[in-house]
Fold this sequence. Notes:
By secondary structure, the chain is an all-alpha fold. The protein has three helices and no strands. The longest helix is centred in the middle third of the chain and has 53 residues, at about 35-90.
Amino acid sequence: MIRAPRAATAPSRRARPTPAPAHPPRTLKQRTLPWLPLVVLLLGLLTLLYLQEIASVATGGYDLQLLEEERAAWELRNRQLELEIARVSSLPWIEREARERLGMVEPERLEYLEVP
């Protein structure tokens, strides 16, 4: 048996049959349904974080208002104490307190001592 040279013809390849898909293509609903609980959970967590921040800001504002009111009260008390210090430091007040509370009297006569 004599064969003809094969160089003149192209090698033949058998076409492979394409395998049938194991499952049919998924629809949009089938693709998004598994992600839905995760998305809802994530949105819920973000909402809770947002509400927590809003509550924190509101509480901070309330605390700031209370501190400003307390500061104003302390400033008023400080001014009152400064006035009282000025009043009790005056010589007429000291003299009156010495007479009334301590029972001191003005001397009848003054004596001066000469120091050598």
